[in-house]
Amino acid sequence: MNQKKRIFIGLDLGGSFIKYALGDHHGDLLYTGKKPSRADQSQDVIFSVIYEIVDHLREKQKELDGEIAAIGFGSPGSVDFDRGRLIGATPNINEWTDADIRGRLQSRYNLPTWVDNDANVMAYAEARVGAGRGMKNIIALTLGTGIGGGILIDGKIYRGSTYAGAEIGHMSINFAGPPCNCGNYGCIEQYASAPAMLRFYEANLKAAGKSIPKDLSTFLLFERSDQGEPEAQKAIQETCRYLGYALANLANIFNPDAIIIGGGVADADDSLMEMIAQEMKKRALPPAVRNLQVKRAELGNRAGMVGAILLAADCLDAER
Amino acid sequence: MNQKKRIFIGLDLGGSFIKYALGDHHGDLLYTGKKPSRADQSQDVIFSVIYEIVDHLREKQKELDGEIAAIGFGSPGSVDFDRGRLIGATPNINEWTDADIRGRLQSRYNLPTWVDNDANVMAYAEARVGAGRGMKNIIALTLGTGIGGGILIDGKIYRGSTYAGAEIGHMSINFAGPPCNCGNYGCIEQYASAPAMLRFYEANLKAAGKSIPKDLSTFLLFERSDQGEPEAQKAIQETCRYLGYALANLANIFNPDAIIIGGGVADADDSLMEMIAQEMKKRALPPAVRNLQVKRAELGNRAGMVGAILLAADCLDAER
Q: Is residue A142 over pLDDT 80?
């Protein structure tokens, strides 16, 4: 039989760049690239960038032994997975409200297209071929400017009844804690995101009468911690302790196989995961954490592309 | 065809009583009763009570037009659903450690038997034929001496990877809150269980210089609140506010169709559910609660029997 290898397009839309890839149904990437997403411009402009990318990938595909079978797309914001489009607005891309991603791509390319929230897509990648491969129930957290969450139940992405679930960054661990942008108080985003970590660091430096560096970043914080600076080390410990509180809740609720942590913190070494796991175990019910692994995400910034490709490949399989 | 109607045995083991019933696959109860569970005695004694009940129900069944097809059993403690037995100990029944409920019942009666944690069984009943009927994703909370939790994902009980999930009573809403029996701090059990509610009430009475009644109970508390006593009303408001915080977390994580509340608080009127829902909406992400119903459990203390019967009926169907 002269059947060509199926190739998938994976697109990962962010506030600064669109990352794109061609890959196979194992999630192996055959070709990758990125392009500014022009997220400050109109929806039509953003779609024109996406079209350029897909046109380019369709050209590239000709060099490969295969044919494009489907498109997978990860987008910020709430995504109606069944319709493949945004629900309402998303903070980092002003004009992206209600964007009909599947509608536009399918009508232009006549290729089956699946769209999901970017945190879900990343969690899916980690679950399928990353830190959670072979596991069934997984919670994924991405610690960045905010905290993204993904929930895998029995290997499937759990989206909630109206696609608004898995907002784990907005689980409050202290109802009287600092106000969050979301309107709630004490969300873990206020305790374990990159900005929160830097706030702890600044407070520690101030308390020690030290000056605050102008080029403050989590990179610098980790560097200084490695160099043995107590204020930096303490900021990391504080973040891990709060993360431990959050993970204890997630363990008691989900009793998952693994909690996978990605984003800035995941760039640090595994000792951090150990520290977070220890804090979790101090608080969680013992049976809920006996077999639970706290793992660093493995796919780094490829997770979005890999997840989009695997989502498209698996959804296409399921339809057949 | 001369096929007899299938009848199911439902057993609901508690620290004081075993409730038992015969019912059909709709969860309709045909015959019910209860017997002291003798939970302070040996495992063999407790099983002898269970055998007496099953023997009795098999006699009763003869009066009905049907034959017993399976047994469903709700037990306190962590239950290995796939093996139908306890995992370790349970606080209210000393000698119930590792009780092999399915093994004992199947070998004695040669009837297929399914066993699950009592909170799961109650949640299942509410999901199938109670406040959550027709819905897919449901969180159930039972507020009593402790707080039991059940999670229904796509209509199926979610148990966690090692049957230790859905411990929603031990989600902390304040990492610096009062210590909980479980070893954690600020668990919702410390804010919204019956004892917590009574603690608020006592504190309010003390603060007002009033005496504390000796026969303090949630029944009395609700009665006095209905009579307009401000200290009682305030205790209920406090409990509802804390529950609102907890429900906001659950909404953000699960975006379920409904959160169903049973136990002592559910005996009060629907205005309480409204109060809890309002507190939840102040804190949750709007898309997560737009279609979310906060509902009072409907099945009361029949939920355990109904759930056990439906679990047995549905599991038997799924095996066929």
A: yes
Tokens matching residue B205: 């009475």
Q: CA of B88 to nearest chain A CA: how many angstroms apart?
A: 9
pLDDT range class, residue A1, cuts 50, 70, 90 = very low
From B173, B291, B292, residue closest to A172, measured CB to CB: B173
pLDDT at B168: 97
User: Within 10 A of A223 (CB to CB), how many other CB atoms are there?
Assistant: 12
CA distance B30 to B24: 7
Give the span between the Cα atoms of B202 and B210, in whole angstroms.
9
Chain A nearest-CA residue for B280: A184
Q: Which of residues 243-272 of B touch A (CB under 8 A)?
A: 245, 248-249, 252-257
Residues 178-217 of B with CB under 8 A from A: 182-186
How far, in Å, are A177, A289, B171, B185 from residue B177 at the CA level? Answer: 12, 22, 12, 5
Cα(B82)–Cα(B163) distance, rounded to whole angstroms? 9
pLDDT at B264 over 90: no
ipTM of the complex: 0.95
Residue A164 near residue B285 (C-beta atoms within 8 A): yes
pTM as predicted: 0.95
A90: which DSSP letter?
B
Q: Containing H/E element for A6?
A: strand A6-13
Q: Are A274 and A245 in contact (CB under 8 A)?
A: no
Q: What's the pLDDT tens digit per position in B157-170?
A: 999 999 999 999 99
Give chain A's mean pLDDT: 95
DSSP line for B81-99: TTTTEE-S-BTTBTT-TT-
Which residue blocks in chain B are alpha helix, DSSP H? 43-61, 101-109, 118-129, 189-192, 194-207, 218-226, 230-254, 270-283, 286-289, 303-319
* Predicted pLDDT of residue B320: 80
End-to-end CA distance of chain A: 19
Pairing of strands A17-23, A29-36: antiparallel
Nearest-neighbour CA in chain B from A253: distance (Å): 5
For each of the domains in chain A, give its residue range(s) and CATH number, in order of start. Answer: 5-123+301-319 (3.30.420.40), 135-297 (3.30.420.40)
Rounded Cα distance between B188 and B262, Å, is: 15
Nearby residues of B16 by Cβ (< 8 Å), 6 or more positions away: B36, B37, B39
Determine contact, residues B261/B276, Cβ cutoff 8 Å. yes
Nearest-by-Cβ selection for A162 from B183, B252, B255 = B255
Q: Is B35 helix (H, G, I), strand (E, B) or coil?
A: strand
pLDDT in tens, A70-101: 999 999 999 999 999 999 988 889 999 999 99
State both tokens at B152: 């229904």
Place of tokens 């003798």: B38
